[in-house]
Specification:
Blueprint: H1 11-15, H2 30-33, H3 48-90, H4 93-117, H5 122-127, H6 132-150, H7 157-171, H8 176-193, E1 196-200, E2 206-210, H9 231-255, H10 269-295
Antiparallel strand pairs: 1-2
Amino acid sequence: MPPSKKRRLTPEADMSPEIPTEINAPERDETLSGTGPQAGMPESQPGDDELAPVDKATERREKFKALQARARHSSERNTKEVAAEKQRQATDPNLLASLGRKQAIASHKLLKADTAADGEDFERKRAWDWTIEESEKWDKRMSKKEKHREDVAFQDYRQDAEKIYKRQRRQMEPDMEGYEREKAAAVQKAARSGGLEIVETEDGELAAVDKNGTFYSTADSTDFIEHKPQKAAVDRLVADNKKAEEVRLKKRRDRGKGEEEGDITYINDKNKQFNQKLARFYNKYTTEIRDSFERGTMI
């Protein structure tokens, strides 16, 4: 390879001043280039556009945490409810009631024994826990309960009708608002006709005075025949009668249900059960005798 030729420098080139290696470029006119802040478009701020995705992500994260907590709370609550239901099913309510009664009886007997050991009157000491009104109310309740227990069995139709009447009377709900409304209307009508006089007493109360004795009913009064009941009251009476008839027919159907064809040898259900029990034990011994009676060959 031939040697490179060296460039010959003139003395003018050697005397020229050194050119700086870094040349300061003229400053760029940002106004003319259109990229500065004074251009037509405003400078973008890093606030709203950059923070909006962060806020949404945080909100979603908080909602997810809340849903997780809610699911965990629901699961714990369901577990507790299942355990409580299982315990309730495992516990017999009749057994608990029986244990409660036994505990009350044992406490009563223990208190009675302690009172007798101290030489005191048990009934007197027990009555100290109750007032006179409460004691009388309790005695009345016990006597009524005992009387009701004795009247359960059928005696006669009069007593049965009386029981039905008392039950219906307890179930009856009188319309007091309608009664007061009709009473006020009757008083006003009688006052306008002159048969009733409204007088103010010394206490400031209003009292109705019957002048000729026709407003208030007596044993000889017949004004009740002019009373016309409301349609709702008539419908209620008809419904009660229909219900009583349905109950009576149902009892009649149930009374003959399941009976085998044969002779009637009983007078009520209790006697029927007794006869069936006798038949189970003694029919094998008395069948021939009863057949002979029916054929008329028994002497």
